[in-house]
Amino acid sequence: MKSIHTKLKENDAIITTADKGNPFVILQTQRYNAKIQDFIDKNKFQSSATDPTKLFQNQIRKVITHRTTLIPKDSKWRYVNLNPSAPTIKGLIKLHKLDQPIRLVVNWRNTQAYKFFQLLTAKIRRFSSLPYAFNIRNTTGSENGSEPL
Question: Domain range for residue 37?
């Protein structure tokens, strides 16, 4: 492991995973960063000069504090991320395509609203009657799973 780490450092390279399958991809850090920047530029993302993490954290805390019908006062602490950070991205190389473009995966777990939106998603699913058109309840075709069609 130490020799691999040394070789990567000497050649200014990184190891990342591919988009499909489970192979590892070794490529130079400069090329990896250029692929990510190219993706950001092509999709016209906007960058911010300041980090809005604290502002968003304050807004989420206000919503959680003032919505007692949605969240009981004794459990509101469960839905506040105490140490939030901005979402992070990781690039997966598409080996199966020409020019090997990148697919970005965004990690939202440490963001301000992650726990709160998990709660909202669960409540919406509980009270909505949206059909699960692409999900299968069981493979037998019956409600209780004992009788096939």
Answer: 2-127
